[in-house]
Amino acid sequence: MNNMIPKEKLSAYQRWEMASLGDTPKTASQAQADAQRAEAERQQMVEQLARLREQALQEGYAAGLEQGREEGLRQGYADGMAQSADASQRLQQLTGQLAAEIGRADEAIAADLLQLALDLSKAMLKDALAARPEMVLPVVGEAIRYLPALHQPALLYLHPDDMPLVQEHMHDELTKGGWRLVEDHHMERGGCRVETATNQVDASLQTRWQRISAALGKPDDWLA
C-alpha cells in the first residue's frame, strides 16, 4: 500500500514554527503592568472621589454650621431682646411696687412718729404739771383775758389743788374782774374753765390737747 500523496494534490500550507519561549514572559509582564497601571488608576480615581466627597461633606458641614450659627445668633439675639424687654417691664413693675410700698411705709412711719411725739408730749406735760403746778397760772390768765367784757356771774372752775395757788398769785386781777372761783373735782390740774352768762372758754387740758392733736391731723384723747 502506497502512503505517498501525489504532489498535485497538496494545497498551499503555512509553515508552523514554534514560538520563541522568550515572547511569552514579555507579553505576561506587559499584561501585568497594564493591569497594575489600571488598578493604580482605578485606586487613584477612587481616592480622588473619596477626597472630593469628603471635601464636599466638609464644605457642606461648614456652610451648614455657619448658617446654623448665624441663625442661632439671630434667634438668640431675638430671644435675648425679648427676654430683656420682659425683664425690663418686670423691673419697672417691681420698681413701681417698691416705690408704692416705700410711700406707704413712709406714711405709716410718719404717722407712728407723730403718735409717738404726741404720747411723749402728753407724758412730759403731765410730769411737768405735777412738778410745776404754777404752770396753771398763764393758762388761767389767758382764759380770763379771752373774754374782756364779762357779764356777771363770771365763774372760774379749777381743780381744788390749784385754787390756793391761783388765789395767791392772781387775787387782785380776779377780784377786779369780778371772778368767783369754783372747785371742780372733774377738772385735771393745770386746766380751767371760764363761764359767763353768755360765753364759755374751755381751757381744760383734755380740750387743749384735743385741739393740738387735731391740728396735727392726729386726733388723740388726753385720757388715753
From TrEMBL:
It is found in: Cytoplasm. Pfam families: FliH (PF02108). Its main location: cytoplasm. Residues 22-42 are annotated as: Disordered. InterPro entries: Flag_FliH, Flagellar_FliH/T3SS_HrpE, T3SS_Stator/FliH. One of its GO terms (biological process) is bacterial-type flagellum-dependent cell motility. The keyword Nucleotide-binding does not apply. GO terms for molecular function: cytoskeletal motor activity. Residues 87-212 form the Flagellar assembly protein FliH/Type III secretion system HrpE domain. Belongs to the FliH family. Needed for flagellar regrowth and assembly. This is Flagellar assembly protein FliH.
